[in-house]
Amino acid sequence: MLRVQKSNKSMDYYFSIETKAVAEFKDRGSKFLAYSFPVKTTNEFKNYLQELKKEHPKAVHHCFAYRIGIDGDNFRASDDGEPSGTAGRPILGQIDSKNLTDTLIIVVRYFGGTLLGVPGLINAYKTSASLVLQCTPVVQKAVEINYELQFNYTEMNDVMRIIKQYNCTVYKNEMQLFCKVEAGIPSNKLDEIVASLEDVKNLELNILN
User: Fold this and answer.
1) 8 contact partners, CB below 8 Å, separation of at least 6
2) Domain boundary residue among 136, 168, 193?
3) Is 150 exposed, middle or buried (0-12, 13-18, 19+ CB in 10 A)?
4) What's residue 2's pLDDT?
5) What is the pTM of this model?
6) Are residues 89 and 173 in the same domain?
7) Which of 136, 159, 191 is the last residue of a domain?
């Protein structure tokens, strides 16, 4: 008997980046190195920030912004010592201008000896973020709903065939006598995938919060 609990998500797709990139911008001696990263968690962001701080220990600022998750509620912007609103917000503005999520941009600044002023800083961080986003393609991704599949080992081939056929993402699997798989199922194909799974004997499907 297949038990299914559906999600109430209505979005089918979102936009993000898939690859890291770097771009450089200079203004009156100051150098701005912008790095973009695809991220799924705040821990990933912290790791990238620490890596860049180690790579650029003499830089005066490591400003950043990120937005994570399809609901857009997980975001942060930091000026890292620059005047309030001159760095983090312009960076985040560029992420939002392309309607991106799961995206992090860190801009490393080397001071060139000349103060740029508030308008100059806003332009420098905005331009740096814009340049680095031009270096990595924006991709459309299917919104996935995470489910746990439980089934007998004898049904593994049928289950994995369906997962592969519909481009589901496998996050965790335990292949024993009784198998357990955690997978992301594209929300726009949920009914179709469930219909295919209904043909698998003794499979239980439950949504993961």
Assistant:
1) none
2) 136
3) middle
4) 38
5) 0.81
6) no
7) 136
Residues 6+ apart with CB under 8 A from 61: 79, 80, 81, 82, 87, 107, 108, 109
| Domain interval for residue 200 | 143-207
C-alpha–C-alpha distance, residues 54 and 35, integer Å = 14
What CATH number is attached to the domain comprising 160?
3.30.70.60
Residue 45, beta-bridge partner list: none
Same domain as 175, residue 126: no
pLDDT digits (tens, 9 = 90+) for 81-109: 999 999 999 999 999 999 999 999 999 99
In order, the DSSP letters of 22-89 are EEEEEETTEEEEEEEEE-SSHHHHHHHHHHHHHH-TT-SEEEEEEEESTTS-EEEEE-TTSSTTSSHH
Q: Is-contact 141 49, C-beta < 8 A?
A: no
79: phi then psi, degrees, rounded to nearest 5 = -90, -15
Segment 9-22 mean pLDDT? 86
What is the C-alpha separation between 52 and 49, in angstroms, rounded?
5
Give the H or E element holding residue 165. helix 156-165
